[in-house]
Amino acid sequence: MTTGSATVTLRTDARIGRIHPNLYGHFAEHLGRCIYEGLWVGEDSAIPHLRGIRQDTVCLLRELGAPVIRWPGGCFADDYHWEDGVGPRDQRPRRLNLWWPAEESNHFGTHEFIDVCRQVGAEPYICLNVGSGSPREARDWIEYCNAEGNTTLANRRRAHGHSQPFRVRYFGVGNENWGCGGQFDPVDYAKEYRRYACFLRAVGQDVQLIACGHTTADWNLRFLEAAEGASIDHLSIHRYYGSGPSTGFSEADHYQLIARAHQVESDIDQTAAALRLLRPGSRVGIILDEWGVWHPEARADSGLEQANTMRDAVSAATVLNILNQRADVVTMANIAQTVNVLQCVVQTDGAACWPTPTYHVFRMFRPHMGANAFVADVDGPTVEYAAADGARPSMPAVHASASARADDGAMCVTLANRHLTDDVECRIALPGGTIGEANAIQLAGATADAHNTADAPEAVAPTEAHVERSGNEVRVILAKCSVAAIRLRVG
Ligand code: AHR
Questions:
Q1: CATH code assigned at 463
Q2: How far apart, in whole angstroms, are the C-alpha atoms of residue 109 and residue 185?
């Protein structure tokens, strides 16, 4: 059944800003099967690998153009001691992973992480230990990674096989320090942040320091006030959301999940407002360095694994559209977590490896990376749903964002049809222009809870969609619970 018709008007003159490629970033933690099995299989594995790093995963991430990977956590970061993870692997200590029940072999450490990043083509983003660490440990890690001279730490890195500095630019000063990262209050964290930043800035002039923010305005305001004068390049926030089980969910669960994905809008807007108020005129960026769907099946004792369905892909498209719409203030975002954990883009089972529906969304949105976002107004059907509190709100079925490349003017319009049961006819209008070329890729499943598995790795895969072009308009049918990417050229 087709529900009404939506019009997306491309307002190319209403420019938002350049979409930093890092909005399409990833996050990998020592948790469950993300690092071990997902990225690292070891040098003795029968699974094809390069220096212990599995190549099927690397290949998929390369195809995404994954721009940045955040590591080693998460909660794990605030109890990680980097020296445990360098030097000969058979001499590295085994430790308890305090947060995600497991023993940590430390076989995957700084050099292995940098190797993953280099193989994928991504920039490394290291989250430092504030909770159980010290400014000295953190400044030593930066010196170990980046020093070029004749210092003991630089020479230690060389002795471990890397003569050239790693040139890591992004460093997080702790993770969720209001919670697992030390249970600080914002004023105490600000004092710690100031102390860390003083030494971290001195050891690496080119580093970008990321402070821990929160999705509550109160934390951000109190932190920024108390950290006045401290050097901050980015403020990070996290957002997880869910509603009902990963598969077999109800109609209400579906719409509530999409509505909760929209919390990212208010999270970013309140953080931007706090920055405008307390860092007026500064260029502190907002980083959403953990985000995604967290279903009830994803528990610590099962490595936070969950099915990744078409519904999750539609919610990811909604969040990525929101990030594009806020490209003027957001400098990075990292979906949680790269492989096997939460809303991963890749899943593995032994030697099998396959992309999730969310992976395909990232692939379809790739043309936005580095392009200039502009406003895309949507006028179309809304859908009423049952909210958790018994109210009957409604949401637009179609959600969109758009960008144009600076080099050749090629445009990309990405659309999510969040309607669970109905297709929507969609007209994309370019006032004052003529569309010369148009093509569309669509991602849809047999059901909203369709997902890929080792046995059916392509149950959900993108296909070409039919587009009709006439003058300054194109027309496409958006299948129920689907995502589409339309590429346009002005003719
Ligand atoms: O991604 C799983 C966990 O969620 C991370 O370790 C933590 O930062 C967040 O609470």
A1: 2.60.40.1180
A2: 30
